[in-house]
Specification:
The complex is a heterodimer of chains A (512) and B (445). Chain A is an alpha+beta fold and 512 residues long. Helix content of chain A is 22%, strand content 36%. Chain A is built from 11 helices and 25 strands. In chain A, strands 8, 9, 16, 17, 18, 19, 20, 21, 22 and 25 form a 10-stranded mixed sheet that branches. In chain A, helix 5 (148-163) runs parallel beside helix 7 (237-252). Chain A is globular, with a radius of gyration of 24 Å. The relative contact order of chain A is 0.13. With 445 residues, chain B is α+β, with helices and mostly antiparallel strands. In chain B, strand 13 and strand 14 (371-376) form a beta hairpin. The chains are: A alpha+beta (512), B alpha+beta (445).
Chain lengths: 512, 445
């Protein structure tokens, strides 16, 4: 870690660092941030922070043998957050002009003052030691530097592989790249620079039986990650596209599932989303206390359950982790300036902790900031967002084969399908991409129209086995929504295969 | 940004282009919002951001580049850089076999969707509006959480063939969830308008509080099919996941709920109840919307369904050319005609059924049937002999809006409403349907 002296007074090297290379607007971020903080202090703010962030997005979308769209987007601006009279105010602009900065700070302070009339309890931030640091996510090849021809070439190769399969009629594929260059300065003295790269590759193949007016799709099982271009070269997209096309065709003639109770083997490409919805969201402290009641909802994991509620069986150890390499919500520091951490939310099935920010520490005794403050843009308000939440296999020695061998009448589910959960995170329903019938410990035939429905604690208590670390993999999303106005968060969930006994399965394909 | 500012800016940007075909889009959004929860304010913020998107074609090779800009004072050098980036990306792109030449100058309908007071609402006025709702909620001993946002958006589209389109609009939006202190009741209400003056936060709080109190002590009702009345909010919540089905291309390609066997579609067929008419109209006084669609093609009043018959699906310019249709219609808003019956009359006509007020987390399950799953939320009530008897526990459903529109028996007066997970303006009546299918019970309140 750099010391403050290295950072601020280390001569030209440090000065260059506070300028963002290649940025559309040439500013000295340190100097600009200090001006904002000074203006806020002068206007009576008891705390202020400034985020000067640049976001780069590139996406390439294709269908069949052609490119649909190539889009590149850059957004560079700043947001000023102040606390005055114990109330938040925030304003943001892409205009780095000194006069606009003064207007932005004035507007943030005005908002805090106007709202303070309707404040019940003044906001108190948990103490935080200032940090001076730079952090970069783990990647080898910056995807923004890779030639377009190479990207388009790989996408069209994926499509061609799918279309070679007889019966596969449509295929669409897409790569998306995100680059974030963030600079955080607080009135407490933190100065943090972070550079994050994320990469996503995805495709969908559709097989059509025109005579019957039927169609079936199979999407890629690939997950977005906090890595560079190297990920798209390593992941076997072309081979998977061919397999996906074959499976889409196979699904047209697959056996519709008979509704009932089944033992489920959930592959990590499916289970990650169930973790996200039924553990990631209900362990958010703001939800549990009613702060998201109007939109995302509340949580069944209320504070009275902390430390004693049996959420799942002894196999269930859910770890929150913003330090995990290549996971999407991994950072050096959150948007409160708190260092990234790793902690358990569920331990041997018992609910033991929440996700928190500095502001939330005062809401409930025994809390500390877990570094979950995040805003999805320079123009967005900071609030609590989900860290990577994963099912930790600990030292499980079970293999996927052993889990399978002990299923008499079950279904193996791979991939992310339809997903839905109630606003307190009890009742959920998940689909998938590929479903295999299991009879007496053997994979037999493909099924279709499968969705499983359960009540969160019943589901996790029905888990009687989690495979060992060998099969562990990350799933994730670029687009987890929360808040008003809505914000998106990128987050990963790791797990290995899990076995769940006697879960309710629906047939979603029966026509009325 | 005035009309003249927009004209001058887009003209300047297009003058930097070296390619024959270029298009520029500008979206300027000025918004401010205030959230509250536990009967107190929480986070709040204001921002102004403009995104400029340049699309360049080199022959049929196409690419877009966009950037956040400080407008109106964006430096020429930044604008030039953006045009150059789009041109460079276009040069690297493959040929687009679906390229359609740019549209020239167009005539648009006049739409009045802008209200200055909404664009410029001061922070103190927003705080007071929220404060009034909180004070009312406290007086009813419920806990309120909600959101107030006022925004002004200017959309501009211009191209090198002489097209210029400009659409300023404003929106004021307020929603509130009231929960009872014993955590067994929850009610929701929302209001949206072009004009901040039409947003009555106290009245909205009163509706939510009433629903919260009435929804306490919910009883369990067995899942199954029930006759139901959907309030406009509940009906609206089903629309975002329905939107993809409005595309003509996927229906023609055999992968939509409106596809039929042997490569045909259901266009022209009576697939909804006779009373169902759904249309778009950019000039509608309550839900005014953009007078232009894709590439600046003019939007106009057009029916999606009339008298239960599926009348049109939306074709892109390319698909229209390929299939010999007119481009569009662009469903810039959606309006469902209603019979104007009071909600109380609809309830009175139900022998045994449910009143559904809001839905949540709706996702596509089977696009072949337009089947979605989701849940009821914030007030679900049991009706017997024409009267609300008590609240019932929330349900999960697996249901299709296409099927439901075939089950409509009666409807009320349309109201402007925004889907919980959507943003385009809708004008929908409460509807009575013969049956709504529920698959399980949710313990959530």
């Amino acid at each position: 870690m750099l010391t403050r002296r290295d950072f601020l007074a280390g001569g030209t090297a440090a000065l260059a660092a506070s300028r963002l290379e290649g940025a559309e607007v040439e500013i000295d971020r340190e100097k600009f941030a200090q001006q904002a903080l000074d203006l806020a202090a002068k206007a009576g703010a008891t705390y202020a922070d400034v985020r000067i962030n640049r976001y780069r997005n590139q996406s390439l979308a294709t269908r069949e043998r052609q490119v649909r769209a190539i889009d590149s987007d850059t957004s560079y601006g700043y947001g000023v957050r102040v606390l005055k009279k114990g109330t938040w105010g925030f304003a943001a602009s892409p205009d780095f002009n000194a006069k606009t900065l003064a207007d932005v700070v004035r507007q943030a302070v005005e908002i805090a003052e106007a709202n303070s009339v309707y404040q019940e309890r003044p906001i108190r931030l948990a103490p935080q030691k200032p940090h001076l640091d730079r952090w970069r996510s783990g990647y080898q090849t910056d995807p923004f530097g890779v030639p377009l021809e190479k990207k388009v070439g790989l996408l069209l190769e994926i499509n061609a592989a799918a279309l070679r399969v007889k019966g596969a009629r449509f295929v669409s594929s897409r790569f998306s790249f995100v680059g974030e260059d963030k600079f955080f300065a607080s009135s407490e003295g933190s100065r943090l620079e972070q550079n994050i790269i994320r990469t996503e590759g995805d495709f969908s193949v559709t097989a059509v039986d025109a005579a019957r007016g039927e169609f079936q799709s199979r999407n890629s099982l690939a997950a977005p990650v906090q890595r560079g271009w190297e990920y798209l070269e390593e992941y076997p997209f072309v081979a998977e596209a061919e397999q996906a096309a074959e499976e889409a065709v196979q699904k047209l003639a697959a056996k519709p599932v008979e509704p009932g109770r089944y033992d489920l083997l959930l592959h990590p490409t499916n289970l990650f989303l169930t973790i996200h919805e039924s553990c990631g969201h209900p362990t958010e402290l703001d939800r549990a206390l009613g702060y998201e009641a109007n939109y995302a909802g509340t949580s069944f994991l209320t504070p009275d359950k902390l430390g004693k509620f049996r959420y799942g069986s002894k196999w269930i150890n859910m770890v929150a982790d913003r330090t995990q390499p290549h996971a999407l919500a991994t950072v050096g520091y959150d948007d409160d300036g708190v260092p990234a951490q790793r902690w358990y939310l569920i331990r041997e099935g018992i609910f033991v902790d929440y996700q928190t920010t500095r502001e939330q520490v005062a809401w409930l005794p025994g809390m500390r900031s877990r570094g979950c403050a995040h805003a999805d843009n320079w123009s967005s308000v900071v609030f609590q967002r989900m860290p990577n939440v994963s099912l930790d296999p600990l030292d499980s020695k079970l293999t996927e084969e052993e889990l399978l061998a002990d299923v008499k009448d079950g279904i193996l589910i791979l991939g992310r399908g339809s997903y839905s959960i109630d606003q307190q995170r009890y009742n959920f329903q998940f689909g998938g991409q590929v479903f295999w019938e299991i009879k007496n410990g053997k994979k037999t035939q493909m099924l279709r129209d499968v969705a499983y429905q359960a009540r969160t604690p019943d589901f996790w208590n029905a888990c009687d086995g989690v495979a060992g670390r060998a099969g562990y993999q990350l799933g994730g999303t670029f687009r987890d929504g929360k808040g008003e106005p809505g914000q998106l968060n990128s987050v990963s969930h790791g797990c290995s295969m899990g076995r769940f006994r006697q879960i309710n399965v629906l047939n979603t394909g029966r026509r009325a | 940004m005035t009309y003249d500012d927009a004209r001058n800016l887009t003209k300047k940007i297009l003058s930097f282009a070296t390619v024959k075909e270029a298009q520029v889009q500008v979206e300027l959004v000025r918004q401010a919002s205030l959230r509250f929860a536990r009967n107190a304010v929480s986070t709040s913020g204001a921002s102004e951001s403009a995104t400029v998107t340049v699309t360049a074609w080199k022959g049929t090779r196409k690419a877009s580049a966009s950037a956040a800009m400080a407008l109106p004072g964006a430096e020429d050098s930044a604008l030039r850089r953006l045009v150059a980036e789009a041109e460079e990306l276009a040069g690297l792109s493959p040929e687009d076999p679906e390229h359609v030449p740019l549209l020239g100058e167009q005539k648009y309908l006049e739409v009045n969707a802008y209200d200055r007071a909404t664009a410029e609402m001061p922070a103190a006025a927003r705080a007071k509006a929220v404060g009034d709702a909180i004070a009312y909620s406290k007086s009813r001993k419920v806990t309120a959480a909600g959101f107030y946002q006022n925004s002004a958006t200017t959309q501009v589209l211009a191209n090198s063939a002489g097209l210029f389109a400009y659409f300023p609009s404003t929106e004021a939006y307020f929603s509130l969830t009231a929960r009872t202190s014993d955590a067994t009741g929850s009610g929701y209400s929302a209001v949206t308008s072009v004009r901040v003056a039409s947003v009555d936060t106290r009245e909205t709080a009163a509706i939510a509080a009433r629903k919260a109190v009435e929804s306490r002590g919910a009883r369990e009702l067995a899942p199954g099919a029930y006759p139901a009345i959907l309030e406009p909010q509940a009906l609206a919540d089903l629309f975002p996941s329905f939107r993809p089905a409005l595309a003509a291309r996927s229906a023609d390609e055999g992968r939509s709920v409106f596809s039929a066997a042997e490569g045909k579609t259901q266009l022209g067929q009576k697939i909804f109840a006779p009373g169902v008419s759904l249309y778009t109209d950019p000039q509608h006084a309550v839900v005014p919307a953009s007078p232009f669609g894709e590439d600046g093609y003019p939007a106009a009043k057009s029916y999606f369904a009339r008298g239960g018959v599926l009348e049109s699906l939306s074709s892109s310019r390319f698909w229209a050319q390929k299939t010999g249709r007119r481009p569009g219609p662009y469903f810039v808003n959606l309006i469902m005609e209603g019979e104007g019956k009071p909600l109380a009359d609809l309830i009175a006509s139900v022998e045994r059924g449910l009143l559904l007020t809001r839905f949540w987390y709706i996702r596509s399950v089977d696009p072949r049937q337009g089947l979605v799953t989701g849940l009821t939320r914030d007030g679900t009530f049991y009706i017997e002999k024409g009267q609300i008897q008590h609240s019932v526990k929330n349900f999960r459903f697996n249901e299709s809006l296409v099927r439901l529109l075939g089950e409509v028996e009666a409807s009320g007066a349309p109201q402007r409403v925004t889907a919980t997970e959507g943003s385009s303006p809708l004008l929908l009546p409460p509807v009575k349907v013969r049956s709504f299918r529920f698959t399980s019970i949710s313990d959530a309140v």
